[in-house]
Every structure is written in C-alpha cells, then in structure tokens.
Design brief:
- The chain is mainly beta.
- Helix content is about 5%, strand content about 45%.
- It contains 5 helices and 35 strands.
- The structure holds copper (II) ion (CU).
Length: about 475
C-alpha cells in the first residue's frame, strides 16, 4: 500500500520505510536517481471509529484522517488515487510549491465515481520542509468530502528538521477535524444557513480520537504539528501552564521561534509548535478557547465553546535538557511589488449573488467559473494582493501553488511563509507573493469550504514570457 522506491532500483514496503542498510545504499545512488514515494489512496465511505462513535465517514484507505505521507525535497510523489465514492472527487496537495497543471497538483481535475487517476508530483529539491496536506477539491463537493473525513498530512522533511534541537524532540502530528453525525453515525447534510456560516460538527477529534493523551518527558520538549482539517471550524488553542514556541507556519520555518500563549488556526492552516515540559509532573489540557468568526448571526455554531481537545501528561524525565536555537531558517522578505490587486469578498445578506434560490459567495462580484480566468499574472512578477472583507464573517483566504508573506501593520512583509490568511470580518489584509515558476492555471479561494463551494473562488493564470 505504501512504499518507497527508487526508480528502477528497488522497492521497500511497510510504513517504516527502509532498513538502515537500504538507506545507505539509496544514498549512494542519490545523485543519479530520484527517490519515489508511491502509494495507493482510495476514497470510500466506510465505517470507522471516531472518538466514541461508529461513523459512516469518508475515509482514505479506511482511515480518518488518511495515512500520513512523508517525503523529502527532490522526491517524486506517485499517488494512485481511486475514487470509491458515488460522486466526483480528486486530490489537492495543499501548500506544496509544485506545478498546478497536468497530473501534478491539478485541482481542476475531476475524477468520476469508480474511476482512478495517477498523480505524479516532483517536489523541487529547494522545497522547504513543513506540514502540507491532501484533501479533495472538486467544486461543490469540497465541504461535503472534507467534513466527512477526507484529509491527511503530507510532511516534507527539510531544512527545519535538520536543526539538532528540533530533531531531538519527539513529535506529534495533530489533525483537527469535526463531524456532524446523526444518531446512527451517518453524516448529516447542513441546511442553507449552516452552509452560509460554514458547517460545523459537534464531534471534535484529534487524529480521529476524543481527548487523546500525549506523553511528554519532564525537562524535554515535544514538537506539536497542528493541521486544521475542518471544513469551517476555527481553533483557538491554549495549553494550560505552557506556552507554544512556534517554529513554522503553513509554508515553512520561521527565522526564529516565537513564543505565544495561544494559536489561532483557521481551516487549512498549519502550525509547528515546540512545548517545553518545565512544569510539575501532572496532566495539562490542550483547550479550544472561544472564538467568534461570525458576528451578527447570533453566534450559534460559529462561536466555539471552550472544549478539551487533548491532554498532555508528564511521564518520565528527559535524559537531557536543552534550549531552542534563536535562529532557525533564514526567511528573506519579498522585494517590493510591481502591482497591487484588490479582491472584494462578497458574502452575507446583500453581498452575495443570488442564484437558483440559494445564496452564493463571490470575489469581485463573480462566483467561480472554471472556464474563466479572473486574474492574470506574469511569470517572475511580485505582487501585493489585498483582500477586502466588508462582511460580518471571517474568510480564511488560500492561494494555491505559491506561498505568500502577510504585510504587517508597518507596511513591511512579515517574515513567515503562509498559504492561508484569515481576513477578519470588516477588515482588509494584504499579502505579497512572487510567481517565480509553474506557469498555468491555479486558484485562490476561501477555505471555509462551504464558501468555496458556493462560489468564493477565482482562477489565477500565471503566464510565461512570450
Ligand atoms: Cu469564507
């Protein structure tokens, strides 16, 4: 099912991919051959255990979340995708800086029910390490399929992982998901008001479990790698008596660790955070703190109540203590832009576009049309994009293919790579991005996936020089 191969060289099966002997043989061949990470991914409705419930969820290979994939810069990903659903589906490789065309990260593709598609993605040798992820991305089906469980992590082991103080810490992937199930465990379909706000389920899980225990050694560190794979729910994370030392955001490492008491994680966002076990031996709760992402609609499901997500329990003592380095990976600010574009986010009563009796969501007054290019940019251009949100709900905006830097209040780019940015209600956010490679069509959209499905998505074409 999951194997690491080197083209024309050898195949090694199993989740623990290669024996040491195999690894050294592979290293010897590194310069001539590209390493291949190959697996089958079947999307299918399956009975799975989610927390204390049996759920008829959508699963990859019978798993929710799907299998964790690991790769390195320079690897080739070969993913044999089988659509075992009764509706169209596909895969998007969220955050990977790879081509968005052909059989690579092509979210325009639609794989019909019972059909298969082979994705082939070459990860550039210069690709940063980080937490990326895969999920379906067919317009009008994204919220349904992701909220029913179709998501998995795609970790790229890179620059950040080679820092000894970080490599020394045990790591825990934390995939946050929420599910709406009826009493029989079958996913429910939301009404139009829930879709407008963005559906949320009251069963909240980490890696498919309710309040799992995460062990931590006193005096040591743990690396928590968060992914918000919910279709709409925001998480405002706090850890009792501990702070987070954030070392990476969506698109890769920060220049230096940043200590934070809380982390806000919108759908699609990732954070890599180190936690130091300096407190007395005990258990400490990872809590989802209240956050209101919609105003003026009476709160309801869009105001999350405090909730225990996981428990960190001290067990044993680390062999040694150490400090985090104050320098991680250099992050150069992008140079000044050649142009500024404005994207008006239309949503809510009076701002959307009525279509077929339902409310749709728009960007610059237009709903998604895969056959229309909304934004054309030149290869090698650096641009500022401003998202203007006059509505009463937050919109986390995601741009495919190229990460960006958010422009801070001082007008300078913040030195962190992002691919999702929360544009809070009644505000505007500017980001800077460079289109240095990968010509062709890609997209940008709100990552509240109901909003994307209702039309809040545009087509970007990166044009080569003619
Ligand atoms: Cu939105």
């Amino acid at each position: 099912m999951y194997s690491l191969t080197r083209r024309g060289f050898l195949t090694a099966g199993g989740a623990l991919p290669l024996a040491i002997g195999g690894l050294s043989r592979l290293r010897a061949a590194e310069e001539v051959d590209q390493r291949v990470v190959e697996l089958d991914l079947t999307a299918q409705q399956d009975w799975v255990r989610l927390g204390n419930r049996d759920a008829y969820a959508y699963a990859f290979n019978g798993l929710v979340p799907g299998p964790a994939i690991e790769a390195r810069p320079g690897d080739r990903l070969l993913i044999h995708f089988h659509n075992g659903l009764v509706e169209p589906s596909n895969l998007h490789y969220h955050g990977l800086h790879v081509p968005s065309t052909g059989s690579a990260d092509n979210a325009m593709l639609s794989v019909p029910p019972r059909e298969s598609f082979n994705y082939q993605i070459d990860i550039p040798s210069t690709h940063p390490g980080g937490i990326f992820w895969y999920h379906p991305h067919v317009h009008e089906f994204a919220a349904r399929q992701v909220s029913r469980g179709l998501a998995g992590t795609l970790i790229v082991r890179g620059d950040l992982d080679q820092i000894p103080e970080i490599a020394a810490a045990p790591e825990q992937i934390i995939v946050l998901q929420d599910f709406a199930l009826d009493r029989g465990g079958v996913p429910t379909e939301p009404g139009i008001m829930e879709k407008m706000a963005g559906r949320e389920g009251d069963l909240v899980t980490i890696n498919g479990r309710i309040n799992p225990t995460i062990l931590i050694q006193r005096g040591g560190w743990i690396r928590l790698r968060f992914l918000n794979a919910s279709s709409s729910r925001f998480y405002r994370l706090g850890l009792e008596e501990h702070s987070f030392h954030v070392i990476a955001t969506d698109g890769g490492a920060l220049a230096a660790p940043e200590e934070q008491a809380e982390i806000l994680l919108a759908p699609g966002e990732r954070v890599d955070a180190m936690v130091e076990a300096t407190r007395p031996d005990a258990s400490y709760r990872l809590i989802n703190l209240p956050y209101r992402r919609v105003t003026g609609m009476g709160g309801g499901p869009t105001t999350s109540a405090p909730m225990v997500l996981a428990t960190l329990t001290y067990r044993g003592t680390a062999d040694q203590t150490w400090n985090l380095p104050q320098q991680l990976v250099s992050v150069d600010p992008l140079p000044g832009p050649s142009s500024l574009r404005t994207f008006q986010l239309g949503s809510g009563m009076g701002m959307g576009v009525m279509a077929g009796g339902g409310m749709t969501f728009a960007i610059n007054g237009r709903t998604f049309n895969p056959d229309r290019v909304d934004t054309r940019v030149r290869l090698n251009a650096v641009e500022d994009w401003e998202f203007v949100n006059p509505s009463t709900m937050d919109h986390p905006m995601h741009i495919h293919t190229n990460p960006f830097q958010v422009i801070g209040s001082d007008g300078a780019p913040i030195r962190a790579w992002k691919d999702v940015v929360v544009v809070p209600a009644r505000s505007r956010v500017r980001v800077r991005t460079a289109f240095r490679d990968f010509v062709g069509r890609t997209m940008y959209h709100c990552h509240i996936l109901d909003h994307e499905d209702l039309g809040m998505m545009g087509v970007l074409e990166i044009q080569g020089n003619i």
